[in-house]
Each structure stands twice: as C-alpha cells, then as structure tokens.
Records
---
Amino acid sequence: MFTFLHAADIHIDSPLQKLERYEGAPVEEIRHAARRALENLVKLAIDEKVAFVLISGDLYDGDWKDYNTGLYFVSQMTKLRKADIPVYIITGNHDAANKITKNIRLPEGIHMFPAGKPGSFYLDDLDVAIHGQGFAAQAVKKDLSAGYPSPAAGCFNIGMLHTSVTGREGHEPYAPCTIEGLLSKGYDYWALGHVHKREILYEDPMIVFPGNIQGRNIRETGPKGCLLVTVDEKRGTTADFHSLDVIRWIHCEVDAAKAESGYDVVDLVCSNLEKILEQSGSLPFIARIEINGLTPVHVELSADPERWINEIRSTAIDSGGGRIWIEKVKFATKLPIKKEPAELTDGPVGEILSFLDEVRSNPEMLKTFGEPLNELMKKLPRELKDGSDPIFPGDSKWLQEILDEVQPLLLHRLMSKEETK
C-alpha cells in the first residue's frame, strides 16, 4: 500500500484580475495566495509521507516576469527532495513549453514530462509507471492521450493529462478526449488537470479532476485543494480531498422578502456572513452578496444602490474582524405587484402594460430602446461595468430582463396614492 498526492492548476503568481481596484481589498493576501496554497501542499505531502506528488499542468500562470517565480518553486521542491518525495509534472495551456522563456534547473527528483511526445517514469520500488505528455503550445486541439503507451505489465499505471475531456464550461477545449478513450488505455488511475472544479469522472479506474488548489475569482467558489490517493494491496484506489486554499471565494444569497427597510437588509446580510464565519474556522473569505426576493424595499435599494452597497461593506468590515471582504453586491430584488394584472387592463395603466408586453416580444423595438444606453454606459461607475456582471444594450434577452425589473417599480409609482393626489 502507498499514497500519493494529485494536484493541478496551481497557477503560481496568478494576476489579481482587477481585484485591486476595490477599496480595502486584501491585495497582498490574494497576490500571494497561490504560493501559500502550494506551501500547504508541500507540508501535506511531508506530513502524510506520500510516495510521490503529481502536478497535472498549469503549475505556472504564464511566462515568468522574472526569475523569482522559478526560484520560489525550487525552494518548495527542495523541501520535498529532502523528504525523498519525487514530483512528476506536465505542462498545460498556461505554462506550455513555448510560453515559458525563462528556465531554472530543477532539484533532483523533480521530473518534467516531455512536451513533444508522451513519456514514462518508473518507480521500481513501488511497481508504479507514470505516463504523461505536456503541452508544447497553448492551443492543443488533438487528443494527446491517444498516443500514450500501453500499460506497463505488473505495474500500477497512472496517466497524467491536461485536458477538457469532452468539454467543460468556462474552460477552453484543449486536448479533447473521451472517458471511453481513457478507459481503453487500461491504466489504473487518470490524474487530470485543466478544469478548476473538483470532479470524479469515473470510479473504477478513477478518472479525476482535483480542481485548482486556490480559487482565483468569484467563479471559483468553495474549498480548493488536492487529492490524497491511497492504493491498497489489490491496487484499489480511494481519493480523499484535502483543502489547501488560504482565502476562499463564496456566493451569499440573501432573501429580502421580509425586510421593511434598507437597514433590515443590511442586518440580514450581516447575519448570513456571521454564519459563514462560524463554518469557515479561521479561513478568511471573499464574498459576492446577492440580494433577492419580492420586497417593498426594492424601491429604497434601487433609489440609492451605492449607499446600500457601502452600508453592506461597512457591516462586513465591522463584523468580520478583517476576515471578510465583499467583492461585489448585486441587487436582484423585485417589487411585489399588489393587484392582479387582470385588474389593470383598463385605462392608462393597462395601455402601458400592453405597450411593455409589445416591446418585450419585439426584438427590433427592444434594440431601438437599447441603442441610447451605449452612450450612457460611458458614464456608469466602475462597479456597474464589472465584467463578471456585464451590460448588453444590444442583447434582447438582457433588455427583456431589465423590463421585467422595471415594470413592478413603474406600476408601484403609477398607482401609489401619493403620486395620484
């Protein structure tokens, strides 16, 4: 019996992706998060006395800005060499052979697979054969696994591959392959990389994405880490997840249906964040807050969103003790309509409803209404232009969603007693 670590997508020195623009953002913590997570991986490998470590691509986020990136990696690998733990690495699309222009000789026991053709390493004392091939260029469109060698007789055979398999949302379709194709190789374990979400594609033999070791943006939420794989006497495998991340990204949805004021909403957010704090232990986290629900507070929130966003940021600072940072606040509330639409079919209100229905169902009319927004977009604050929640004035679906949000607010104002006096 022996154990090994399977990790991927470490992305050492990954850029901040515009996160530094937010006031109070933990810039240094985020900038060095991937390094700290790698240090956790090294410590776990030593503590567990694993036989070896696999890194299935994208060790680096791209070409080094200077040699410090390589020197840092060598410093961590030296710790594993001193513990007699070899490491096996393939390159991926981010650190493909033709993208890395600088190079430092790695310590003894740290092995890189070739990028031009498949290669194999043999651990004779464990009867283990590890097969793999790195990316020679970023955009690999062919199935690399098809050229991998046949399994070594009498060995526990591992295949390392950086791949999208049959395709995964948010990831380029590099080195495509099929589960059936991987199974046909006859290997005992497939150590995949490229997809940042942990996923077991097949149980026996195991075909696994471990996910990345540190979330880098709000699309990479939840615990991140690696797999500790145990191989028993019958060559059966079990894989246990171990978190390595040092700062975590989360979505926090808050139902404002029962809120009666903006401060009620702030208190609801605070309560939700405190629950997350209790569950996360000592780990700090970055949260995107989404306020939703049918609520009369929709008018108050919509009238001054900047104020309420910063009220929420303020309460997070106060209650989090430096462990909570709000990446973004998104208001997705709607105003409840007190009267049934059937009661609004007559008179001016009915005409407005009919007009909105006509616009909603006519792409050309929607396009006409969207055109003036192109100029207005230039004057919007940064937060509304954020790429993770984009504005599409020329997109019919986006405009329809905006009409759905505006209609209850418009009806509320048209039918309020104050405005009819």
---
Amino acid sequence: MISDHPAAYAGEPAFEFIKRVPTTWDETRVLGGEPGRHITIARRRGQEWFLGSLTNWDERDLEIRLSFLGDGKYVAEIYRDAPDAGLHPKQTVIEQQKVDRSSALKLHLASGGGAALRLRPE
C-alpha cells in the first residue's frame, strides 16, 4: 500500500519494490513476531516470495530462516533500513544476495523501521 501521494515516491529507488508486489497471493506464512513488538510475514505468488518485517519503536536484530523456499537458488533483493534510518527514515539500503532454503538472513530494524525482500528463483 502507498500511504502517501504517489508523487512523494518519485525518484525513490526503494519504490521499485512496491511496483513489483502482486495484489493477490498463493500462500502466506507468518515467520515470527510478537504482538505489539514486531512481525515477519512471507507471501508467495508463483515462484516468487515477498517478505516484510517491521518493528515498533524498539530497534532490533532478527535472523530470518528461509526454509520455506523451494529447491534451488534464489536471488534476494533486500530493502532495509540504512544505518542512519533512526534519524532519516527514508534512508534505505538496497542489496542483492544469493540464498537458498538453508540460508538465514540477519536484519537490523531501526526504531519504527523494517525491511522488505523479494526472493526470486535465480
């Protein structure tokens, strides 16, 4: 969902993630969390997975196990809080990493922040 006027996202590299997110899903899994504190959810459409994590006002470190992935290698497109996101919430780091179902990703969530991932077959 876009919580602002779409023009507010013009030129924002992280908007690429939002443009790729489907509107219907084949499967949804809650990977972890605690009500009122944090949540991590993965949703699948076809062979691609989209994962979102968010936290309350407590920054935290999470380890996300990717055992829900199918066989084979995947490319993880990771959109995560930049080191200064606590002061500048629009700051995002975008990176790619090769993963498989035995991988675990470590994510640092800034206060009030989160991360989003697109996991696509290699």
---
Amino acid sequence: MDSVSPSTPVDFSDGPGTDLRDGLQEFRVRYPNRKRMVSGLPWNYRVCGEGPRALLMLPGGLGNDLAFGLVAGLVSRFRVVYPAYPVVQSLADVLYGIAAILTAENIASVSICGVSTGGMVAQCFMRRYPERVERLVLSNTGVPIAHWKHGRRAANAILSMAPWPLLRVPLAMSITKLLDAPAADRPFWRAYAKELFAKYVTKAEVLSNLRLQLEYQEDWHFSPEDLAGWPGKVFIVESDNDIFNNPTRREAMLDTYPLAPMYTIRGGGHMPAFTRTGEYLEMLRQFL
C-alpha cells in the first residue's frame, strides 16, 4: 500500500510526542520510496541503511513506515528492504514481486522479519524461495489453520459491502487498539492511524490484504518437513496479551517449527515491534 510522500506535511492533530513525530518525519525524508513495476503491478519500497547484511522487513499490510523506529535502530548493521504491498489478486503476486525487488537491488539472500500478516507472507516466501532466506523472524503471526477460513470469508464479505467512509474510523481505532502502545505514546499512534486511513490507504488495498489472508487459510498448508534441508533458522516472537494469540494458534506454530526458540514480550500487544522497540531491537540483534 502506498504511504505518504516524504514531502507531505503530517497533521497530527491529537498532539503526538515530539520524539515519535520527528522520528517518523525524518524516516520519510531520509528513506523515500523507490518505485518499480513488476508484472504490471506498481510496487513502492524503501531501502534503508548500508549495512553488510540484508534484512527484509515485511509489514502487516498498512504502508511501509509503521516500523520507522525499528528500522532506524537496524540500519547501522543491515541494509533493510521495506516494501509496501500493491493491490494484488494472490499471494503469488506478492511473493514474485518481493523476489523481483530483491533481484533489482542485487540482493541474493536475506534475513526476514515478518510481523502479523507480514509473517504470513514471510512463511510463504521462505517456502517458495528457500535459497533466498537465511533466517526468519515470525512475530505475532500464525500458520494456516484450515477451519478459520469460514470466519475470514464471512468477515471479508461484510467488509467488502461497507462504504469506505464508514470503515475508515473503526479501522483506525482497531489499529490503535492492536498497537496497545504505552499511554504516553497513544496520542501519536491515534493520529498516525487516523491519517493513514483518511489519506493514504484505500478500500481496494484493505480488501486486497483481506483476500491474501483468506487465501492463506484456504490454500496453504505447512509442516515441519517443509524445512528439511533448509540450513536457516526460525525465531518466533509473541506477546502474552496479543488478542489474536490463543492456545490453538500457539500450538500450531510450535508444531510447525518445533526447533524454533520463542520469545515472549510481556504486555506487548499485537505489534510489539513498533511499541516496544527497544526490547524488540535487542532481541533481533541477538538472533540475527
């Protein structure tokens, strides 16, 4: 999804904290989006830093600046590729587009950090292009669970019929709730989410993301044997209060990746990569 142009001023009417506001603005200016057409689809992506190793940052599907604080803490050691997903019809389009971007940037192999829906994309990419993946961080995400497709299909149908002006406010509120940021940072994230859905995210992009989630549950199936012969390592990150985490999803993750260490962030919500950045960075540095 397209994110704000780095030259566009940001109106945070809710009065965000100066550090977060300035960090976001600096990130947008320093790492503007590059543009590339892949199989007729327009991709935007940022390349951040000039570290000796490549790290692919896969977002949950809402632009590519939500992780500005995390990326800023990684650029001294990594060359971070941070794409935004265009409107697509299938996960195959996403996987091929990411591979094409890495090739265009002369990156043969990467470590991947996949957050939420980005973790879904990361797991599919690793299985489609295992030779291009060194290490895999799966953060606040899950593996396909077939019977969940029914609820996802019903929710998608309802959302597809709802007028976009009526969806924007509850979507922005849901992102703020999922972030579960510390109290002092909540005004910033409320303003960020409000602006995101008011100006930069379209209904077509939201529905595209929802289609990918449904396809993931319907058509993909993982097992521990998928990793046979793959020399890389998997690391799992969860939060103890992630509203999407439950015993079924957790058990399925552990069954699929029985050798993967798991790190639990206390009180991190669904997106600790963005709201518990210091702890998250230290964890990433140790694994990567």
